Structures are given as structure tokens and as C-alpha cells.
Amino acid sequence: MIQLHDKYFKRFLSEKEILLAVQRVADQVAADYKDKTPIFVGVLNGSFMFVSDFLKAYPHPCEVSFVKLSSYQGLTSTGIVETLLDLPDNIEGRSVIILEDIIDTGRTLKELVHLFSNTNVKEFKIASLFYKAEVYNGEYAIDYFGLEIPDRFIVGYGLDYKELGRNFREVYQLNQKHMINLVLFGKPGAGKGTQAQFLKEQYNLQHISTGDVFRYNIKNGTDLGTLAKSYIDKGDLVPDEVTIKMLEDEVAKNQEADGFIFDGFPRTVAQAEALDNFLESKDMKINATIALEANDEVLIQRLLERGKVSGRTDDQDKDKIRNRFDEYNSKTAPLKTYYEEQGKFHSVNGIGTIAEITERLTKVIEGL
Ligand code: AP5
Ligand code: MG
């Protein structure tokens, strides 16, 4: 076990296993590029060790260069990818092979593909040492990879946790034993979002509100937002497949969290089952589901009050609020039994001052 900053990591891959994976990538590429003198482009910082060992294992003529994307990763409003270290300028008409240490959700890769789509390279391929196939959701098919790995947060061999750990010869994975994962449960307006703000500070947890993620997408006019809006505006639940996929992406984006507060998820038995399976695949679990209890009249008052200022269309109309309660009663309430059977269900009085309720929640969490 090693410690980096506040976290503990356990051994995941030995130096030998890593070098075998490097050799595998080099062999595959070498078979295809024997007579082509490709340019290998390493993506900094994470890939420097891989690039070095890869080149030692690559037997044919080749060139090497590096790119570095800015830490703000995303397209600017003009559609330009921000780079800190520019593309080499001799790549026209050449075969470019990107060397990545790891491909997970594919966000970086998407930017790289975009970056190279504006150049006149002859061809563009991706070779990654590690590949998290289960979370990858890009369109680009990965051309070469050394080792498929499960979705664990890893460090070492070039990969870091807050810049530490890059110098290890082996790869380590985050030890999840001390994680706290909570489901905040309750009707619309019960105070899930309000209380999550306090708990996330207190326990250093990552707060995921599926409602907030949907609203963020609606605001930014994404496809997901447009789809979700058609349901949310009526107070209906968004279909499970969409919501489950989105939740998994949010967890994958926050690998180094000390734990999660799931707010507004799961909302159906299918979502709860999907969450359990997903967490289990990551060596994680739900520690507790805590319900905030309050009666409908109080909740309707709170929501209508918020509706005056929040701009949330689903808060502004009593019928829509009623529909949200109906959805809750028919689809979400059965989860109480689901979590009771696992011995994880806790109930807290959700009426009182915000501070009083935080106190009640803290008691439950301390007792876990
Ligand atoms: P979502 O955004 O999750 O809305 P919701 O569940 O209806 O709950 P709210 O966010 O309105 O309430 P909250 O419990 O967080 O309370 P809050 O702290 O804000 O979901 C919106 C929609 O997205 C859904 O209807 C659905 O269409 C879709 N969706 C989301 N997740 C989905 C999923 N998993 N599957 C399918 N579809 C999904 O508090 C409410 C108000 O009360 C605030 O103004 C607050 O200031 C006030 N307040 C809080 N505590 C107190 C207190 N103690 N005293 C007085 N006032 C208080
Ligand atoms: Mg909320």
C-alpha cells in the first residue's frame, strides 16, 4: 500500500506485466507500419514512460513528437482545441500514430481526433497502453491497445494523482475501502439538494444530482438535454436507459472521489439494480440510503416558492408538481423495500430548519 496526498493505493500491475503490454502494442503497430516510417505522437504528461518503452520496443524506422492539451479540455466556442504544445509541423502526408497512456471515457481522444481532422495527415491511428473498454463511449474505434483494464482509478508509470505517482515503475489502484457512498432519497422538494451541499463539504464527497445534470444539459442545448426536457417539463421521469448511462458517466468522470452522494438517483427499481451492478464492477457499494420525510403540503409550498425564482418550469404549476409526486409514489417509493431488504434504509424527519436536518443526517452517517 502506498499513500499519495490523502489517498491510499494498492498494487495493480507489476513492471513485468506493464512491459508485456507495451511490447504487445509495439508488435501490433510494427506489423502494420514496417515500411512506412510513422510519426509517433505522445500525449503529455501521462504518456512519457509509455512512449519511451514503446520506442525501445519498436524495431523499425520512426519519428517521435509530443502534444499537450491545455488543462481546460474542451473545444472553445470557435471549435478550436486548446494546446499547450503544438502539433509537429512536418506531419503533412504522414502516418501519425497517437501514443496514449490510457483511454477511459474518450474525452481527450475526441479532442485529439478533432485536432488532427484539421491537418493533412495521410492517416491517423490511436495506440493506447491501457484501455477501459467498459467506460469508453467515443465513436472512434481504438486501433491498438496493450491491456484492457476495469474502470479503476490508477496511478504510476506516468499516471498521476494530483501530479504525484508518475515515477512509479508499477501501476497502483485506488483503495476503495474507506469510501462512503450515499443515496439521498425523498420526494420532490424534500431537501436532497440542499442537504447534499452540506454533506459533501463535511465528508468530502462528490455530489451527483441527476436533475442538475439534466438541467445543465438543457441549458447547453445538448441532445441529451432536448430529450430530457420533453419529460421533465411534464414532471415525468426520464427513461431509465438514458439516465443510467448518464449516471455511469458522471461516476467515471470523478474517479478520485472519496465517495458519492447520489441525489435523485436511483428513482426506479431498474435504476437501483443497475447502480448496484455498476458499483460492484468497480469494487464499490452503497453504504446507506437515507430518506428525507416530509408531507406533501409542506413540499408543494417549498416548490411553488422556489418556482418563483428558479426558472424551473416543473416547479411553477401545481399539476406538474402533483405529477412528480405521482411518479414518485408509483415508481420511486418501492425502492424503500429494495434497500430495506439490503439493511441499508434509514429514514430522517425532513421537516425543521436546514441545520437541524443536517444534524440528523450526520448522526445516521456517523452510525454506519
Ligand atoms: P430533480 O432535480 O431531482 O428534482 P426532484 O426530485 O423533484 O427534487 P428537487 O430537486 O425539486 O428537490 P430536492 O429534494 O433536491 O429539494 P431541494 O433541496 O431543492 O429532478 C427533476 C426531474 O429530472 C425529474 O422530475 C425527472 O423528470 C428528471 N430526473 C431526475 N433524476 C431522474 C432519474 N434518476 N430518473 C429519471 N428521471 C430523472 O429543496 C427544495 C426547496 O425547499 C428549495 O427551495 C430549498 O431551499 C427549500 N428547502 C430545503 N430544505 C428546507 C427546509 N428544511 N426548510 C425550508 N425550506 C427548505
Ligand atoms: Mg434537487
Primary descriptors:
alpha/beta, Rossmann fold, 2 domains, 22% strand, binds BIS(adenosine)-5'-pentaphosphate, binds magnesium ion
Q: Would you mind describing this structure in some detail?
A:
The chain contains 12 helices and 15 strands. 34% of the residues are buried. The mean pLDDT is 93. The protein starts with a strand and ends with a helix. It has helices at residues 15-33, 48-57, 107-117, 192-203, 210-219, 223-232, 240-253, 269-281, 296-310, 318-332, 335-341, 354-366, and strands spanning 2-4, 7-13, 39-44, 63-69, 83-85, 95-103, 123-131, 144-148, 154-155, 171-174, 180-185, 206-209, 259-263, 288-293, 345-349. The chain has 368 residues and is α/β, with parallel strands linked by helices. Helix 4 (192-203) packs across helix 12, helix 5 (210-219) packs across helix 6 (223-232) and helix 7 runs parallel beside helix 8 (269-281). The chain is elongated, with a radius of gyration of 24 Å. The strands form 3 sheets. The chain has a 6-stranded mixed sheet.
Q: Strand-residue fraction?
A: 15-25%
For the record, what CATH class of the largest domain applies?
A: Alpha Beta
Give the total of domains: 2
Class derived from helix and strand content: alpha/beta
* Rg of Cα set: 24 Å
Termini separation comes to 25 Å
Helix residue percentage: 40-55%
Strand order, largest beta sheet = 5-4-3-6-7-8
How many helix segments? 12
Mean pLDDT: 93
CATH topology of the largest domain: Rossmann fold
In the predicted model, the low-confidence regions spanning at least 5 consecutive residues are none
Q: Superfamily at the CATH H level of the largest domain?
A: P-loop containing nucleotide triphosphate hydrolases
Q: Tell me about the largest β-sheet.
A: 6 strands, mixed
